[in-house]
């Protein structure tokens, strides 16, 4: 069992466009499928209801950590915190880091989620497995969102 999930994908769009999709809370909500109520501000909590069918009872809640424009964005959260009867607040959250790099074709976005070894043992494997699949889907979601919204009008 690993302590970290790492995914990356190349997006055919400038870093500035990918950055906006990643850090503007309304755009983040569109591709991540969450109705966020407030912007990302370091040290503050951003929350909103998930819009993914079957997970629409889940409240996304993340604390923005660092925002280094057009390069790095991170937040902490409780991974796979989907049981409304469970209080996750006493658990150590994982750290999600996004790093953007300019490439010849556009932008490489890399996401790393680490800290699974601090998740309680009774839910660690499931949280890791669900987030492994979740990040695989989410990097495709941001790629599709950016590339579709960046195309010039015909």
Fraction of residues in β-strands: 25-35%
Report, as a whole number of angstroms, the end-to-end distance.
48 Å
So, the CATH homologous superfamily? START domain
The CATH class name reads Alpha Beta
Order of helices and strands: EHHEEEEEEH
Number of domains: 1
Low-confidence region ranges: none
**Tally of DSSP helical segments:** 3
Sketch the major β-sheet. 7 strands, antiparallel
Shape assignment:
globular
Counting DSSP E segments of at least 2 residues, the number of strands comes to 7
Strand order, main sheet: write it out. 1-7-6-5-4-3-2
| CATH topology tier name | Alpha-D-Glucose-1,6-Bisphosphate, Chain A, domain 4
Q: Helix share of residues?
A: 25-40%
Average residue pLDDT: 94
Question: What is the alpha-carbon Rg in Å?
Answer: 15 Å
Can you give a write-up of this model?
By secondary structure, this protein is of the alpha+beta class. It contains three helices and seven strands; from the N terminus they run E-H-H-E-E-E-E-E-E-H. Strands 1-7-6-5-4-3-2 form a seven-stranded antiparallel beta sheet. A hairpin with a 4-residue loop joins strand 6 and strand 7. It has helices spanning 15-23, 25-32, 121-149, and strands at 4-11, 34-36, 45-50, 59-68, 72-77, 94-102, 107-114. Helix 1 (15-23) packs across helix 3 (121-149). The radius of gyration is 15 Å and the shape is globular. The mean pLDDT is 94. The chain has one domain (4-149): Alpha-D-Glucose-1,6-Bisphosphate, Chain A, domain 4 (2-Layer Sandwich), CATH 3.30.530.
């Amino acid at each position: 069992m690993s302590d970290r999930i790492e995914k990356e994908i190349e997006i055919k769009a400038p870093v500035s466009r990918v950055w906006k999709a990643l850090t503007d809370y309304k755009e983040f909500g569109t591709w991540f499928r969450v109705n966020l109520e407030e912007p990302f501000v370091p040290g503050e909590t951003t929350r909103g209801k998930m819009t993914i069918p079957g997970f629409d009872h889940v409240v996304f809640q993340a604390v923005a950590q660092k925002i280094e424009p057009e390069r790095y964005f991170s937040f902490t959260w409780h991974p796979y915190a989907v049981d409304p009867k469970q209080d996750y607040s006493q658990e150590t959250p994982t750290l999600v880091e996004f790093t953007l790099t300019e490439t010849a074709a556009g932008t490489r976005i890399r996401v790393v989620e680490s800290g699974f070894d601090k998740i309680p043992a009774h839910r660690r494997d499931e949280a890791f497995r669900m987030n492994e699949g979740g990040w695989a889907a989410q990097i495709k979601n941001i790629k599709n969102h950016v590339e579709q919204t960046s195309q010039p009008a015909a």
